[in-house]
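Justification of computing resources. Each target in the renewal requires a structure prediction run like the one illustrated here; the chain below, 400 residues long, is used simply to show the kind of job we budget for.
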Amino acid sequence: MEKEPIKVKILPNQFLKADGTFDKKEAIKLSGKIAGVCYDKEGFEHLEKEDEEKTIKRIKRTLDCGHHSVYDHIQISFNLQNIPKILAMVLNNEKQYTTSEKSARYTPVIRQEKSIITSEEERLYNKWLDIFIKKIKSQYGHIYNDSKIQKLAQENARYLVTVFMPTQMIYTTSLRQINYITTWMQNYIEKANMNNEFDKKLALSMQELINGFIKVNILEEGLMKNEKHRKLSIFGKNLDKIEDYFGFIYSTTYKGSFAQLAQAHRHRTIDYQMEILDEKEYFIPPIIEDDQMLVDEWLGDMQIIKNVTPQGELVKINEIGKYENFILKCKERLCSSAQLEIMLQTRKTLLKYKKALEESNNPLAENIEMYSHGARCTFPDYECSSDCKFKEGKTLVRKI
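Resulting structure tokens:
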């Protein structure tokens, strides 16, 4: 089935040429001058006027010796169109970036003529969209208006749509980082199992994105050597062998959907890795959990579209971070307006964390207790700017 190709454009900046390509030569030249700041007695103004041959020698030296941090001064904002959701997640798992992405919560899934989304996905999406609207209205119609109910229904129906669904994002990172990421994607492509549909589709999408980077002229051979043999950070291995640990730092492994992992990427002070499960499992929205017939129907429909890798498919997720950053995550996710699945998992991790600290007599046990009584509006050090007046939301027992 045909699909719209990934499009890479650069937003206006000092190095954007009239033809839409990147003025790599001038950007690298500026970085070469900046590289002289650490030892030039007269400062940057002197470097701006230095002989170009001297700058070029410094550029070669920094590229050859791996002193690439000076190329982080060059920030580039990309307008990425038709990028698969999973590829956006790959980019968002790398820390050095800012992103603004189209939300499936606020926009309906509409299959276009050349869309990668199948007719079955569209049918099931619309079927469950109607079911969720009715269920939410029946249970929470006194809390939410029709517009809010529509958004929540869309958020849940999208679990049935492929994680390769095309999306749009503005992605800002440095010249160094985008070259590094490209190298890591090339490594993934080289080692991808092309007999595995997920690996194959992701590898092809990565190559398409790389081709887009080539067209806009942002790849620099000197920044793509990868002497440290780094890889894309999102993919883990043998995650079930990592033991949970809770102290001043923590590590925990659990199952969550692709959709939840995409939400978790917003917490960039925390590290995440994922691993595909050997046996397929799927997230079941709590709003239908009390109706076994609907649960069976949901899982049956997931089986129909299992080969497209729906966003509701569960993966193994390992989460590693510092205690204070986990509490910051709680201040974001333990809220009635947060996506439900990540709210439930954050709460579950919080209670595991609390129990482990208490059992080990960790001095943090007294601190974490303050955050264990409900939503963030119950925290002693959080001020809510808009009271939801939603009891089930504040007690973290809501179903939607």
